[in-house]
Recover the amino acids of this structure.
């Protein structure tokens, strides 16, 4: 179901993929939202970064920022005791909220989106949809190169892939910290042999390492 709190993000994504809302749009709002939901990050009680304001009357705690932008407009802000806060202004695109001297910490719960990755995913669908019609042809001595449109979209797609959030993963290394070279060969570590070897597998070399 399409959510009204996604309107600003859907509109911004449409700008990235050159698919403005209207009679000629390729994607429905629901399609764009689905692409965004596929790359969203759910956040629970994440502390916002404080940017204090220095005045002659002392320090004011007015501005709080998230380390990433593009938030859905249904975020909830809480104080350190988990009571709900109402900011004076909200900028979900940048990830900036203002208060009238609100002491830290300010915690945020909500959903933020990798807009460039979603735009790249949608461009892949758009290129596939247009590929059958955007062809080059010659007629009456004139040449028409419709494929230039696809070339432009492919360049934008590659650019958006580079701008997408960097994601990392931890890969376990069973061959380190006491595990011998036999693990790299697919042979069970000696500490695991007794667990793996049953009445039948006890004499299987590739499990026991014998």
């Amino acid at each position: 179901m399409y959510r009204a709190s996604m309107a600003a993000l859907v509109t911004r994504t449409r700008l990235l993929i050159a698919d403005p809302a209207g009679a000629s749009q390729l994607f429905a709002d629901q399609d764009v939202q689905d692409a965004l939901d596929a790359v969203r990050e759910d956040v629970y009680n994440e502390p916002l970064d404080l940017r204090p304001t220095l005045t002659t009357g002392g320090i004011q705690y007015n501005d709080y920022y998230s380390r990433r932008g593009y938030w859905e407009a249904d975020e909830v802000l809480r104080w350190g005791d988990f009571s709900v806060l109402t900011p004076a202004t909200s900028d979900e695109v940048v990830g900036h909220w203002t208060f009238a001297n609100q002491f830290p910490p300010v915690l945020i719960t909500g959903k933020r989106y990798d807009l460039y990755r979603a735009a790249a995913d949608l461009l892949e669908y758009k290129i596939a949809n247009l590929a059958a019609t955007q062809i080059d042809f010659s007629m009456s001595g004139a040449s028409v190169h419709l494929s230039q449109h696809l070339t432009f979209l492919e360049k934008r797609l590659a650019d958006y892939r580079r701008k997408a959030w960097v994601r990392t993963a931890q890969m376990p290394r069973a061959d380190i910290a006491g595990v011998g070279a036999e693990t790299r060969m697919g042979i069970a570590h000696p500490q695991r042999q007794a667990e793996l070897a049953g009445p039948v597998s006890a004499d299987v070399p590739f499990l026991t390492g014998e």
